[in-house]
Write a structure and sequence with these properties.
Blueprint lengths: L1 H10 L5 E4 L4 E7 L2 E7 L7 E6 L10 E6 L4 E5 L2 E4 L2 E6 L3 H8 L3 E6 L2 E6 L3 H13 L4
Antiparallel strand pairs: 1-2, 2-3, 3-4, 4-8, 5-6, 5-9, 7-8, 9-10
């Protein structure tokens, strides 16, 4: 029985937060709900981007938002987003509130009108801290 449990654990998807420094600083998370990817590329005029991909289409609403729930709850909204296929992307010159929300809360919900996708932030804090270190001393 122990072998079956071990085998099942190895074959189930690992939904962990992952940091990658190359070719640009990236932190991402994939779940059954979708994928969230945050990047920092100093070669771009707007070096920060967040891309949220979900299985279904986004509604295309004028306002996109991130709602962070937890000890430092906050909601951030923007009308500066674009949608390509099933991925919604926002680019900007700074993401301090986004980084704080990801690092210091328990969940993040991306919303576009009535369309939402929620991600657990369990395990995100150490990866966001590594991402912040990359911003100080980029590896690329």
């Amino acid at each position: 029985m122990r072998y079956i449990i071990a085998l099942l654990a190895l074959t189930s998807p690992a939904f962990a937060w992952e940091y990658t420094p190359l070719p640009v600083c990236t932190v991402s998370h994939e779940s059954d709900q979708g994928t969230l990817e945050l990047t920092y590329d100093p070669a771009n005029a707007e070096p920060y981007s967040i891309a949220v991909t979900r299985p279904g289409a986004w509604s295309g609403a004028r306002i996109f938002g991130l709602r962070f729930d937890g000890p430092n709850a906050l909601t951030i909204t923007t009308d500066r987003h674009g949608i390509k296929d099933k991925t919604l992307t926002v680019r900007d010159q700074g993401f301090g509130n986004v980084l704080n929300g990801l690092e210091f809360n328990s969940t993040v919900t991306a919303f576009d009108g009535d369309t939402t996708v929620t991600f657990s932030l369990d395990g995100a804090a150490p990866e966001i801290a590594r991402f912040r270190d990359c911003l100080i001393a980029p590896v690329a």
